[in-house]
Amino acid sequence: MKRKYVKPTLDAKGKLSLVTAQTQVSDGEIVAPSDIRLKSDIEQVGVASNGLPLYNFRYFWSDAVYQGVMAQDVLKAVPEAVVTMPSGFMAVDYGMLGLEMKRVH
Q1: Global confidence as pTM
Q2: What angle do CA 71, 37, 50 make, to 5 degrees?
Q3: What is the reported pLDDT for 92?
Q4: What pLDDT, on the 0 to 100 scale, is given for residue 85?
Q5: H-type alpha helices, the chain
Q6: What is the DSSP letter of 97?
Q7: Helix or strand or coil: residue 95?
Q8: Residues with Cβ < 8 Å from 86, sequence gap 6 or more?
């Protein structure tokens, strides 16, 4: 079933709204917003044991640095681990990848 496109919204500071990019549940699993369009300061730092590139990045709405994958990479390798949120952005089920997204600092 095709989902209706929801235009992303910006907060008062002109940053992507956390509400727009919120995490949702897929088949009882929590998925993390992993769309490259939600991230800044992206730097590849390695490759996971499953062959996917690992990146350090910041979400537009946060100063924290995280390490994880990009949904666009996962879509090519393990498409069943990617879901499209109502906002139109993609999220990844890290459990299906045998990975965890980590906060670096």
Answers
A1: 0.75
A2: 20
A3: 93
A4: 86
A5: 71-77, 94-97
A6: H
A7: helix
A8: 3, 4, 6, 24
